[in-house]
Please model this.
Amino acid sequence: MPQNFKKSTTRSRSATLEGTRLNKFLSNAGLCSRREADQFIAMGLVKVNAKVVTEMGFRVQRSDRVHYDDQLVNSSPPVYLLLNKPKGFVATTQGGQIKKSVQELIRSTHSLEKIPPIGDMGRTVTGLLLMTNDDKLRQKMADPKSRFPTLYQVILEQNVQIADLDALAKGIRIREKVYKVKSAAYIQGGSKKEIGIEAANLSPGLLKKILEQRSLKAVTMDRVLLAGLTKKDLPRGRWRSLTDKEIQFLKMIS
Model:
C-alpha cells in the first residue's frame, strides 16, 4: 500500500508540472516581460478560465483561456499577414473545414497555428486580405464604425450608366440602412463595364448587395487597397508579413 500511494503521489506531482508558467505564457504572447507579467498577476489583472489567478508559478494548460485586463491573450506572439488572394480560394471567419481555404496559401510557414482572416472573401473575389491572430485588432476592424479605406476594381456583366455611379455615391438603401460609397467611376482606359469603387470599411459581400440593388451583377471583384495597404510587390497568391509601421497604423485606425 505505501508503495502504491507513493507512485500515485509522484504521478500527481508530475501532472501539476505540465503546461506553461503563466508569466511565460503572457511573455510569449508578446504582451510584456516575465517580470511585468508577475506584477500583472499579483495585481489580479489576469484570469484563467474566467477566474482571477494571483498564484506565482501557476501553470496554463493548452485548453485554458487566459485573459489580461478582460482581453483574450493568444498563446503565441501575434502574426500579421497581407495576402493577395487569388480566384478559387475562400476566406471565412466561420471556421470549419473549407475546400481550398486561404489557409492553404500560408500553410508552408504558419502550419502550427491557424491565422484567421479579417472578414470573408468568396471564391470569385480577389485581392487584398488581412490575416491575424490578434483578436483585438480583428474586432476593431470588423466594427462597422471603423473607417479604414477600401478600393475595388469591378467588372460587371452589363454596362454601368452614369445614373448608377451617381446612385452609389448618393446612397443605396438595403432594408433599414443606407450605404454610401466615397466615389464610383469608370476605370480609365476600360469599358463601361469596368468601374472603381472607393469606400470606408466595405466588405466584398456588402458591395455585391449594393450593386444588386441597381441590378448590376459583378463578374470579377478585385480589392486593390485595404486600410492604406496596396498590392505593390505582392503577386497574386503570395503573402507577406506587415511591417511594424503598418501594424501601428492599423491599430490607430478609428
